[in-house]
Inverse folding.
């Protein structure tokens, strides 16, 4: 008896007799009863919210302001420099909003971010009326103004981390989206057609698997001109599909002989339709599990690359590059602890989600839990 | 059996050629050559003038397009010559020989420790499955498993090298040995051991967490089989059921896991060796990429790929050995 049915006893009988719940609804109902997995999901949702609202959480540009009779949102400049209204550059604000707003338009008002700190530079003396400059060198212990302390150049660690959340989330989702697509296509082709196609795809998978990932990534990063975080994501995705391909191949091998595929073929469905509409939905659950774990490992890969000094170019700062700064200043423990814990929690959260997903979708494990 | 081995061997050769071809192409197309990267970066005044560069390029064979260079490299490898390192002026085989020991010291110790601790932990977890203490242990292992090594390494460095500085617990931050080469054998061994504690810890905990979870997962699968019910029904005690009936049947996946850990044993971990500046294979690899030291990159890639393929083959063969139901055909 599931939650929803026990809460609506009158509807329970009817819904069970007319239509049983689908596989995914069933899986979700089971997933919801796993406190750890749900906590992990909540954490990732929170991270997504932080990433979206980063400029409103920490920044030195107003979230919204009224200036010379019009309303602007300069904080969008943190997402892309071109989104920052040009009028402020024309009026020589030079990135310093609080004083300039009042001086150049006494009637202006502004809604400020929760924490007045910039992820790209140190806040200067009296930039926010009455507040001293950020401490530089190894002076910047965490305090009320710099929640997570400051780095050697006086840049606020909290602001850097809030703005780095976007990278951490995007890396996982984008690179695994790519890896999942490649892996499913390669695995599906090999598993469904078999024969020489399978021979070829399996060989390619094996070769990519054997090439040391780090060489591959470092070499490709070195080759592409102007490395950006997007290219890093693409490279991680382009090298991380082998496990998914192998699993998909296995599932397709197993399912292509099943009766529903024979039935579909008998109705005249072509191979593409059979693969996409009939086999893939049935193979998706086991494939989704390594993809979720893959997100965790992609985040790890990106942060270790940044840690080794191959991260996105400044000013974009990922959590891993913060750790790289910390290596030469180990006495500044706050440069290690906060980003380190953030990476760890994110990886843990994705692993827990993957684990939960595996438990609710794998019938063998489901029986074991009873 | 012989035909199977022969087929695997031939396929392995093909795979090796493909891998080395890709890596050679990538390495040669990285911007900069060993000459420019090495000298220009540290000191602009030491930059070679164009004529010298051309001359050096000819000596190193870099004036040729990369596919010709690959064929030459391949030809030398077939004759057993891995070439000489550009930046270290030593044969690649000598370099690898120098670095294999330190890496093995770390990864071998870590592997033994991880299995010694991981097998009992995994068995304990499956014996007490569902109880409060097992849940706590499993959760802890899971947390450890998700803990990034480089973060753990930095934490350990902060605690043992910065906070505990000057106490008896202080451990060296990096390197393998501080003592001069003429120190006594025992003193040097003790010094190296002290330096190895942190890297070994870092390498152990991840595999420990992984291994014990792996064992527990396999045990859970095993204890649901009919033969376990039969064993219980005939009156075998819980310990005997666990070791004799269940654990022995989980050995096959364990053997596979052991086979697949072979390349890591010699290849080392780039990140850990980089953080602790440990003079091992991983660090050599990282440095050779940075220095565009093509012969070393290729030598290490070749070795790593050969080990991976041998590990896979070994895993498959051992599989047949421990499970008579599986045959190579």
């Amino acid at each position: 008896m599931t939650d929803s049915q026990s809460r609506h006893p009158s509807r329970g009988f009817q819904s069970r007799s007319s239509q049983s719940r689908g596989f995914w609804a069933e899986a979700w109902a089971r997933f919801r009863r796993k406190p750890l997995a749900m906590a992990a999901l909540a954490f990732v949702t929170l991270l997504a919210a932080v990433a979206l609202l980063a400029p409103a959480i920490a920044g030195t540009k107003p979230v919204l302001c009224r200036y010379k009779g019009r309303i602007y949102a300069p904080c969008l400049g943190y997402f892309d420099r071109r989104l920052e209204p040009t009028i402020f550059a024309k009026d020589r604000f030079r990135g310093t909003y609080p004083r300039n707003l009042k001086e150049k338009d006494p009637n202006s008002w502004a809604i400020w971010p929760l924490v007045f700190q910039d992820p790209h530079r140190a806040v200067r003396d009296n930039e926010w009326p009455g507040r001293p400059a950020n401490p530089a060198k190894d002076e910047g212990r965490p305090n009320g103004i710099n929640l997570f302390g400051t780095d050697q150049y006086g840049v606020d660690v909290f602001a850097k981390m809030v703005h780095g959340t976007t990278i951490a989330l995007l890396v996982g989702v984008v690179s695994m989206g790519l890896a999942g697509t490649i892996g499913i296509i390669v695995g599906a082709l090999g598993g469904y057609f078999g024969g020489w196609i399978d021979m070829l795809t399996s060989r390619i998978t094996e070769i990519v698997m054997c090439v040391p990932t780090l060489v591959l990534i470092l070499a490709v990063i070195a080759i592409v001109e102007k490395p950006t975080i997007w290219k890093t994501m693409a490279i991680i995705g382009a090298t991380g599909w082998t496990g998914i391909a192998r699993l998909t191949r296995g599932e397709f091998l197993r399912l292509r002989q099943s009766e529903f595929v024979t039935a579909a073929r008998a109705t005249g469905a072509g191979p593409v339709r059979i693969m996409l509409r009939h086999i893939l939905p049935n193979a998706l659950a086991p494939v989704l599990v390594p993809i979720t774990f893959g997100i965790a490992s992609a985040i790890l890969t990106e942060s270790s690359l940044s840690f080794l000094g191959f991260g996105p170019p400044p000013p974009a700062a990922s959590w891993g590059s913060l750790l790289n700064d910390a290596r030469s200043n180990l006495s500044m423990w706050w440069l290690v602890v906060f980003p380190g814990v953030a990476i760890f929690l994110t990886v843990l959260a994705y692993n827990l989600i993957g684990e939960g997903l595996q438990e609710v979708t794998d019938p063998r494990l489901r029986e074991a839990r009873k | 059996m012989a035909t199977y081995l022969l087929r695997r061997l031939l396929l392995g050769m093909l795979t090796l050629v493909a891998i080395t071809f890709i890596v050679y192409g990538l390495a040669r197309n990285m911007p900069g050559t060993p000459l420019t990267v090495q000298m220009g970066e540290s000191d602009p005044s030491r930059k070679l003038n164009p004529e010298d560069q051309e001359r050096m390029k000819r000596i190193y064979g870099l004036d040729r397009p990369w596919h010709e260079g690959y064929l030459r490299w391949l030809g030398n490898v077939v004759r057993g010559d891995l070439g000489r390192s550009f930046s270290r002026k030593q044969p690649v085989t000598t370099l690898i020989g120098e670095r294999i020991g330190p890496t093995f010291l770390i990864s071998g110790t870590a592997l033994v420790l991880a299995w010694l601790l991981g097998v009992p932990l995994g068995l304990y977890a499956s014996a007490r499955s569902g109880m409060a203490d097992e849940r706590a242990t499993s959760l802890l292992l899971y947390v450890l498993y998700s803990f990034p090594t480089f973060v753990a390494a930095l934490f350990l460095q902060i605690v043992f090298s910065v906070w505990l500085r000057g106490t008896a617990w202080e451990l060296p931050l990096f390197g393998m040995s501080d003592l001069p080469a003429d120190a006594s054998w025992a003193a040097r061994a003790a010094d190296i051991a002290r330096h190895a504690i942190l890297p070994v810890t870092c390498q152990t905990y991840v595999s420990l967490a992984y291994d014990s979870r792996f064992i527990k997962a396999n045990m859970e699968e095993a204890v649901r089989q009919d033969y376990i019910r039969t064993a219980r029904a005939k009156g075998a005690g819980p310990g005997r059921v666990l070791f004799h009936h269940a654990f022995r049947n989980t050995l096959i996946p364990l053997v596979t896991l052991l086979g697949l850990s072979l390349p890591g044993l010699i290849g080392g971990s780039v990140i850990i060796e980089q953080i602790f500046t440990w003079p091992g294979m991983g660090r050599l690899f990282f440095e050779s990429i940075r220095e565009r030291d093509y012969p070393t990159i290729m030598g290490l890639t070749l070795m790593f790929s050969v080990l991976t393929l041998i590990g896979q083959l070994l895993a498959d063969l051992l599989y047949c050995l421990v499970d008579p139901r599986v045959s190579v055909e």
Summary: Strands of chain A lie at 64-67, 70-72, 109-111. Residues 1-17 of chain A have pLDDT under 50 and may be disordered. The two ends of chain A are 13 Å apart (CA to CA).
